[in-house]
């Protein structure tokens, strides 16, 4: 009796629907999650970047993976239902935007091992060269436009076929051609293997179509990884193109301009050359090149001046006597009134940054660059800041008249996007997948904007630290000579023009206080 009970207990299958099966699944999954032979999403720990060593190589550290054990249990359940080896399922199951998908090799192996068909075979036919028209979406001035293009291809067709053992009938998949790949958008996407290995991709896609029609139960309703990736690119071009257009046309120019102005050495400027060359707007590119050349000349002169002015040890006494007779002269400061072109350029840049500010703090912090300006000169910037703050404080309701997909793709913030998530989850099937994919793409884009903003704020804080120290030192000066000595410090050359204006204004105020 006990022996029979033990045998029955040991034969409990892996599953999720009863306690014994679930406990057995967890024990096996825990063992698998500790293995290094399974893909990373199934492991108990994952490796994350923890910085670089002295040689510039990435250093990784282990962090717990809360999803590893659960993923292993699900993979075990799928392997049990399919009668397949769990490790084979894990190695061939890909997760693409939250949806599992099989590798193409696994689909072909499952069909061949099912016993229902003969081995898959493929008929390849060369159809010759032809020109194919296809539609693509392009962005111009922030608007989406559908453009019809023509491409010359060498067309090939492929049909997967096998003999059904039960009936002896030859069954075939749909015909897959290079022309179809072009029109569906598989061929023209960036990094597409349809361009480098077309015959192999034709076989993979034909096998996937064959399995979905004649043996969907073998694949458990899942597509191939290649199909899933192609579908994601097809349903979210707007979010991707909008992200590209926004980052390249609006953000990159300002960011590159700030990077050039804050560079502390010619080497740092040389690293920015590749980004300037890839900039899409020719006028902005010319302006960046001109600005970078001026900054290189400035840094080169600053680097040479300390060596030219270094005192010789032999004439130390003479230098001291000359210093007593002649007061050191402070660096000549140029006020903003003396440089109207510089004022207009800086004002335009600050107004543009105010209009694009995402928070009230980001808008108001721009006033720190105008301490040396008159009230009349500050007025245009203050008006722009007030208008932007008013826009940010207005709670813009979601336009219910627009389709939900458009609302997701045009969501202005993560908060609005989270509100739309509840509506997107109401859809099921293909429509639900399209909405969730668009939601994920938009959220990733908005998160990237937050990252850039935080990086920009940190960079400004670093620069303001040095500027603040110099201003504080000037405010503590008791004589004109102490102020002049501060202006001889080579650190002043590290400040950007706006911060140099702050230092000059602080010196003027302190000089007025000293002289009464």
Tags for this model:
516 residues, 3 domains, four-stranded antiparallel β-sheet, two-stranded antiparallel sheet, 22 helices, 8 strands, disordered N terminus, Recombinase RecT
Task: Report what the structure shows.
The chain has helices at 2-10, 19-33, 68-82, 86-92, 104-113, 178-184, 198-214, 216-219, 225-235, 237-262, 266-271, 273-277, 282-309, 316-325, 340-355, 360-364, 375-393, 404-409, 414-424, 429-476, 480-487, 497-515, and strands at 45-52, 58-64, 93-96, 99-102, 121-140, 143-163, 170-172, 176-177. Helix 5 (104-113) crosses helix 7 (198-214), helix 15 packs parallel to helix 17 and helix 19 runs antiparallel to helix 20. The strands form three sheets. Strands 5, 6, 7 and 8 form a four-stranded antiparallel beta sheet that branches. It has a two-stranded antiparallel sheet with strand order 1-2. Strands 3-4 form a two-stranded antiparallel sheet. It has 22 helices and eight strands. The model is unreliable at 1-10, 234-251, 308-335, 395-401 and 460-464 (pLDDT under 50). It is 59% helix and 13% strand. The protein is an alpha+beta fold and 516 residues long. The protein has three domains: 1-96, no CATH class; 100-224, no CATH class; 241-309 and 325-515, no CATH class.
């Amino acid at each position: 009796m006990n022996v029979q009970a033990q045998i029955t207990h040991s034969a409990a299958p892996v599953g999720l629907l009863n306690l014994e099966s679930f406990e057995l699944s967890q024990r096996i999954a825990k063992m698998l999650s500790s293995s290094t032979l399974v893909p990373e999403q199934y492991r108990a720990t994952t490796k994350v970047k923890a910085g670089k060593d002295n040689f510039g190589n990435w250093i990784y550290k282990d962090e717990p993976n809360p999803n590893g054990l659960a993923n292993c249990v699900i993979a075990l359940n799928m392997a049990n239902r399919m009668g397949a080896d769990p490790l084979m399922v894990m190695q061939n199951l890909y997760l693409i935007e939250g949806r599992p998908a099989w590798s193409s090799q696994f689909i072909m192996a499952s069909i061949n091992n099912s016993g229902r068909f003969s081995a898959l075979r493929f008929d390849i036919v060369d159809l010759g060269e032809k020109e194919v028209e296809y539609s693509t979406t392009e962005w111009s001035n922030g608007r989406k436009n559908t453009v019809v293009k023509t491409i010359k291809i060498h067309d090939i067709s492929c049909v997967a076929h096998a003999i059904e053992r039960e009936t002896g009938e030859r069954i075939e998949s749909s015909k897959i051609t290079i022309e179809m790949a072009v029109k569906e958008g598989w061929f023209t996407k960036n990094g597409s293997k349809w361009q480098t290995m077309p015959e192999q991709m034709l076989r993979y896609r034909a096998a996937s179509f064959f399995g979905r029609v004649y043996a969907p139960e073998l694949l458990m309703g899942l597509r191939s990884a290649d199909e899933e990736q192609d579908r994601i690119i097809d349903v979210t071009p707007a979010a991707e193109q909008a992200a590209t257009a926004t980052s390249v046309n609006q953000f990159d120019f300002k960011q590159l301009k700030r990077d050039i102005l804050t560079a502390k050495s010619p080497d740092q400027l040389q690293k920015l050359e590749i980004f300037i060359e890839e900039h899409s707007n020719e006028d902005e590119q010319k302006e960046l090149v001109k600005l970078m050349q001026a900054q290189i000349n400035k840094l080169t002169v600053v680097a040479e001046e300390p060596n030219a002015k270094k005192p010789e040890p032999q004439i130390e006494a003479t230098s001291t006597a000359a210093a007593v007779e002649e007061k050191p002269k402070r660096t000549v400061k140029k006020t903003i009134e003396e440089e109207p072109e510089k004022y207009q350029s800086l004002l335009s840049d600050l107004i543009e940054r105010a209009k694009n500010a995402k928070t009230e703090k980001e808008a108001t912090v721009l006033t720190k660059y105008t301490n040396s300006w008159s009230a009349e000169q500050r007025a245009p910037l203050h008006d722009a800041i007030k208008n932007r703050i008013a826009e940010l404080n207005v709670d813009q309701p979601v336009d219910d008249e627009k389709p939900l997909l458009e609302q997701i793709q045009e969501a202005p913030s993560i908060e609005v996007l989270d509100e739309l998530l509840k509506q997107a989850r109401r859809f099921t099937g293909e429509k639900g997948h399209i909405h969730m994919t668009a939601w994920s793409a938009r959220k990733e884009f908005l998160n990237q904007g937050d990252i850039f903003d935080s990086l920009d704020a940190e960079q400004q804080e670093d620069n303001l630290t040095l500027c603040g120290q110099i201003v504080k030192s000037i405010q503590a000066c008791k004589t004109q000579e102490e102020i002049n000595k501060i202006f001889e410090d080579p650190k002043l050359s590290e400040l950007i023009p706006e911060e140099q204006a702050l230092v000059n204004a602080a010196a003027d105020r302190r000089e007025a206080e000293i002289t009464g």
